[in-house]
Specification:
The chain has about 130 residues and is α/β, with parallel strands linked by helices. Helices cover about 35% and strands about 25% of the residues.
Amino acid sequence: MDMLMVRDIMTGAPIHVDRQAPMVDVARLMREHGIDDVLVTDGDKLLGVVTARDLVLALADDLDPHNTTAEDLAGPEPISVHAEDGVDEAVRLMRAHELHRLPVLEAERVVGMVTWIDVDRPTGRADR
């Protein structure tokens, strides 16, 4: 049996913002799409991820939501998986870093996202 690859289960076209997007636009995008985090990109290159927690901390620190950029908020060195990696690698990374989703890269370009729902669907497993 062939190993199930991340590209086989990922969701394409992840929601992302340009690195210069103001914090207020990031928050609106999250609200509009009902998501808790958004990818920060420079073109197709992944720079980081902004989470709802990042927004709360920025507001608590009195950062200006109109002048603080997505790049300012994004954590360094985002954890990601490659499209050609096995699903087991995505599971390992999500467990090790307590993540609900991972950006999927192909030739260093963002091409999708993989979540626990994606992992559970084809395998019928819930091994978190």
